[in-house]
Amino acid sequence: QEAVTVLGQIGCDSNGKLNAKSVVLEGDQEHSAGGQIPLDLSELKEYSLFPGQVVALEGTNSTGRMMVVSKLYEGVPLPFHTPTEPAQEQRMVLVACGPYTTSDSVAYDPLADLIDVIARDRPDVCVLFGPFLDAKHEQVENCQLPGPFAEVFKRCLKMIIEGTRRLVFVPSLRDVHHDYVYPQPPFLLPELPKDDKPRVHLVPEPCTLDIDGAVLGLTSTDLIFHMGAEEISSSSGISDRFTRILKHVLTQRSYYPLYPPSEELNVDYESFHSYASLRVTPDVLVTPSELRYFVKDVLGCVCINPGRLTKGQVGGTYGRLYLQREDAQGERKSPCVAAQVVKI
């Protein structure tokens, strides 16, 4: 029998976790009425699969009941952005992710330390990810706050805005006062003084940002943790799980390719493709996670997990990026000259 090539989405044959024996390939509604076929992966030397992954496979289905896969085709990432404007001088970007309070207090002392760092290092842009007021904080859960959620949040933001230059605020699904849906709309700050509006950018979650021609992909959702819990792999070489997951994000061209999503995520699929798809491969992808901080080069994209600013009752980490774009001549050079994860 001749091998055929088919396209579909990876799924699991039951409600449990995906494993090598429970993988099915599901077709789309238009061409195959959502039909499913179980997959036999025993002939593949290496693979990395997760529910929701769109794949092309080569294999045979001699019984009509199971497809024996002989080849798995990798996805291809989108091209990088090609800026037309001339290159600017080097920019320093500081990235930090909440919570900005320790687990035993709602005083923003770690945030005050970060503002001191910002005053000392004077970064050109600060990208701050939520949660700014963490729904998982014990005093938030027990409503032991000095005022309403929105008021505490505004006080926190006022503290940051007064002490910094150009600011980008990315919301989080753990922000207790904000819309609990993914993709998530930007924060609203109607009382922001007119003088501050040009330098304070309120962006959605996830978001693709252009800083002087260097493109940053930003997401506060812990997709590394979510996908790491669902991905299955078999590999002959030494393969790093973080790199595999980040590769999937870039080749699936989505900030959240996992389907069905994690139980802690409420996904609005009507707006998902408009707001959670990658338009280009970012030069830098910032994905804060509970898992260990890292800086990695994946398919030419610099991926950084800056960690969280607080870890329980102690200080955590933040990230620093140095961006310097060269005028395009010949081969592409990453505009990210250096990336560091720094202890607070």
TrEMBL record:
InterPro entries noted in UniProt: DNA_pol_a/d/e_bsu, DNA_pol_alpha_bsu, OB_DPOA2
GO molecular function: DNA binding
Record localization: Nucleus
Keyword Nucleus in record: yes
Gene3D superfamilies on file: 3.60.21.60
UniProt record, GO biological process: DNA replication initiation
Native organism: Smutsornis africanus
One Gene Ontology CC term in the entry: alpha DNA polymerase:primase complex
The organism's taxonomic lineage, starting at the top: Eukaryota, Metazoa, Chordata, Craniata, Vertebrata
Segments forming domain DNA polymerase alpha subunit B OB: 1-75
Residues covered by the DNA polymerase alpha/delta/epsilon subunit B domain: 93-296
Name of the featured protein: DNA polymerase alpha subunit B
PANTHER family with a match to the protein in the record: DNA POLYMERASE 2 ALPHA 70 KDA SUBUNIT, DNA POLYMERASE ALPHA SUBUNIT B
Pfam families noted in UniProt: DNA_pol_E_B (PF04042), OB_DPOA2 (PF22062)
Keywords attached to this entry: DNA replication, Nucleus
Gene responsible for this protein: Pola2
Family as reported in the entry's similarity comment: Belongs to the DNA polymerase alpha subunit B family.
